[in-house]
């Protein structure tokens, strides 16, 4: 696992982006039936996420990140103990949740490392932050709930569903609050600076 090496080297941002890209890739491949068996891709994707969450918690302790990784890792672990159909469904849901992250990271890195034009840090933060807020909202508050309720397998235990879904949506709401608050502070800071 490449992201384990990145975490070992304390490159948490790159490891997070790689994890998100791999989760999104596995999700995309699960929609193509004839290339790889969905069940095997789902197990690999869930194990990949579980290993990432455990390894990332050991690198740098932060209560918010720790709570996120515990809830997400527990969801992966629960899914791995259930039927192949539920594993595929959960792996797809995890991949959908991670889809916004590579978009944000790519834009942020592109803007910060651009040799062609000079962009001030506030501009980079506002463009990358605004783009991430929009993609985060679309993937985690529209696409993810739509997927969850339209493609849920018939044999998914509803009690377990709410145990997994409610904490994840609570975390999404918390992250969205932090994103909007940070974006708002950056815009106010920029407006005050340029008066």
Mean pLDDT: 78
What is the number of beta strands?
Answer: 0
| H-E order | HHHHHHHH
Report Rg: 18 Å
Tally of helical runs: 8
Regions with little confidence, pLDDT below 50 for 5+ residues: none
Approximate helicity band: over 70%
Could you say which structural class the secondary elements and strand pairing correspond to?
mainly alpha
Tally of separate domains: 1
Determine the strand fraction and express it as a percent band: under 5%
Specify the overall morphology.
globular
**Largest sheet report:** none
Tell me the distance between the termini: 49 Å
Please tell me about this protein's structure:
The protein has helices spanning 2-8, 12-30, 38-59, 63-80, 84-98, 100-112, 121-150, 158-193. The chain is mostly helical and 195 residues long. The protein has one domain. The chain is globular, with a radius of gyration of 18 Å.
Main traits of this protein?
single chain; 82% helix; 195 residues; 8 helices; globular; mainly alpha
Please summarize what this structure is:
The chain is an all-alpha fold and 195 residues long. The chain has eight helices and no strands.
Task: Please write out the topology.
Blueprint: H1 2-8, H2 12-30, H3 38-59, H4 63-80, H5 84-98, H6 100-112, H7 121-150, H8 158-193
Helix pairs in contact: 1-2, 1-3, 2-3, 2-5, 2-6, 3-4, 3-5, 4-5, 4-8, 5-7, 6-7, 7-8
């Amino acid at each position: 696992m490449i992201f384990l090496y990145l975490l070992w080297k304390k490159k948490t941002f790159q490891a997070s982006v790689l994890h998100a890209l791999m989760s999104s890739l596995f999700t995309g491949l699960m929609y193509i039936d004839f290339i790889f068996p969905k069940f095997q891709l789902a197990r690999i994707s869930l194990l990949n996420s579980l290993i990432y969450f455990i390894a990332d918690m050991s690198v740098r302790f932060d209560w918010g990140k720790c709570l996120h990784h515990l809830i997400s890792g527990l969801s992966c672990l629960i899914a791995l103990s259930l039927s192949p159909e539920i594993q595929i469904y959960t792996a797809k849901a995890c991949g959908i949740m991670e889809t916004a992250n590579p978009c944000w990271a790519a834009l942020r890195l592109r803007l910060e490392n651009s040799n062609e034009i000079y962009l001030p840090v506030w501009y980079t933060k506002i463009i990358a932050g605004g783009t991430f807020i929009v993609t985060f909202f679309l993937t985690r508050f529209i696409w993810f709930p739509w997927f969850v309720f339209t493609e849920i397998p018939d044999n998914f235990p509803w009690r377990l569903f709410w145990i997994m879904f409610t904490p994840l949506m609570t975390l999404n709401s918390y992250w969205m609050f932090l994103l909007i608050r940070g974006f708002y502070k950056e815009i106010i800071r920029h407006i005050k600076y340029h008066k």
